[in-house]
Amino acid sequence: MGQEIQENFSASLHENLSACDDDSDFKGHKTITEICGKLYVVGATSGGAESPLDVKVFDKATGKWLAPTILGKKPNASTFHSGVLVTNDRVLFLKADSLADEFLYFLEVDSKFVRERKNLLGGEVVAWSKGSIGDGPKPIVISGPSGVGKGTLINMLMKDFPSTFGFSVSHTTRAPREKEVNGIHYHFTEREVMEKEIKEGKFLESALVHGNLYGTSVEAVEAVTDTGKRCILDIDVQGARSVRASTIEAIFIFVRPPSFEELEKRLRDRGTETEEQIQKRLRNSRKEIEEGKEGLFDHILVNDDLESCYANLKKLLGLHSMETSNKAASVDFRTPSSFSISIDAENNIVIDSQDAETKDGIPKKIVLDVSSVRGGAPGRTRGLAVSIEY
Ligand SMILES: Nc1ncnc2c1ncn2[C@@H]1O[C@H](COP(=O)(O)OP(=O)(O)OP(=O)(O)O)[C@@H](O)[C@H]1O
Ligand SMILES: Nc1nc2c(ncn2[C@@H]2O[C@H](COP(=O)(O)O)[C@@H](O)[C@H]2O)c(=O)[nH]1
What catalytic activity is recorded (predicted)? Predict the structure, then answer.
């Protein structure tokens, strides 16, 4: 673990930057962190708090600025921020004058996710991932053949636990059904547009399902996690496999029908597909049900009687009849307006307030244990432990 090179801290670094004369459009405070011969400059280009933090990368070997593709939701700038190199693949940014659930962000520069995206997109890539104190709720992936009742079960969960769950709205190239609303049920998209966006790395996963493209955008997952809710993904088995291979730590549930005859009946009774489409979905369901047995899933639910299946789903998610909070450990404080950073003997990050006055709700010292962080972009970096001294 190492500390950032603060602005004005290193004369040679400053020479490097001024020689390039390219960081001039950063307004206000900025930080510079050196990782493997590259300087990561983080600041706001539009000025003022609430404008997003941008990233520029200077390659010392070539003496050139690189314009990185920046993935993930950018944190808003604050008057002051500081970066700590946690490992050689990510920097932890700590924001001043910010609420407890808004002050920690990781900038991944060489994580598995970033390397994958570099391969896909070419060039320099970095990714923001918000830090969660405590474990935070794991996203839930629900898969199963078309017509088995995934959407029905998810709607029941969302209705009974509205402040606990949020639905990841997928993109699809299929035509909307009569009652489907763009942006709520799906983002309905043209095929060329979606293909382009897949190439640009906008999607966490995407797959060709029953002849149409479907995909979960990184933004769709982040839109839910940003509200502090637990994200539910309704995706096919190919998508579940891709999410399993990503850094997202999720719970994977496969929903099975009691029989093929019942599955066919449900698809027909739903009345949303043509005969040809029903036949295609039924053909695919045989393969999907076989794949559901392969150990990819943590739980298998048989949706025979709907109420019993829903009760089993709630049980495995640890839900009770009343709304329960699955939110990350709730800690309530505001970070100081200015602070210094040091690393203690246990490798914890120690944030000491440099504010002239002490104020209610603003700790004098915040100690962060980053030894158990998990997950990362896209979504949350979970498992940060915090202790506070007032
Ligand atoms: N346990 C059940 N018993 C009888 N009917 C059910 C049951 N569960 C769901 N259904 C009905 O089956 C039909 C299909 O359900 P639903 O649309 O939720 O399936 P799905 O798995 O989301 O399908 P798709 O993958 O095509 O979106 C709906 O008309 C729904 O009301
Ligand atoms: N891999 C993905 N599969 C998805 C996604 N969104 C939905 N789906 C799956 O597609 C089928 C068909 O859905 P329908 O709404 O046309 O009936 C179903 O199995 C869904 O689970 C996605 O983003 N990625």
Answer: GMP + ATP = GDP + ADP
Ligand nearest to the CA of 176: 2
For the chain, the C-alpha Rg in angstroms (whole number) is 23
Other CB atoms within 10 Å distance of the CB of residue 327: 17
Q: From its phi and psi, is residue 317 left (phi > 0), alpha (psi between -120 and 50) or beta?
A: alpha
Three-class SS state of 293: coil
Do the Cβ atoms of 218 and 202 come closer than 8 Å? yes
- Is the minimum distance from the CB of 147 to ligand 1 under 6 angstroms? yes
Distance (angstroms) between ligand 1 centre and the Cα of 16 equals 61
Q: Tell me: cis bond preceding 258? Omega within 30 of 0 counts.
A: no
Is the peptide bond prior to 137 cis by the omega test (within 30 degrees of 0)? no
For residue range 6-47, list pLDDT tens digits in order.
433 333 444 445 544 555 577 778 899 999 999 999 998 776
Atom of ligand 2 nearest to the CA of 288: 19
pLDDT of 214 strictly over 60:
yes
* Complex-level ipTM beyond the 0.90 threshold: yes
Strands 64-66 and 69-71 turn out to be unpaired
Which region holds residue 56: left if phi is over 0, alpha if psi is between -120 and 50, else beta? beta
Q: Is 172 in the pocket of ligand 1 (CB under 6 A)?
A: no
User: How far, in Å, from the CA of 235 to the mean position of ligand 1?
Assistant: 14
Cα-to-centroid distance, 129 and ligand 2 (Å): 26
Q: What are phi and psi of 324, to 5 degrees?
A: -115, 155
Please state the atom number of ligand 2 nearest to the C-alpha of residue 145: 19
What tokens appear for 57 in the block? 């990368």
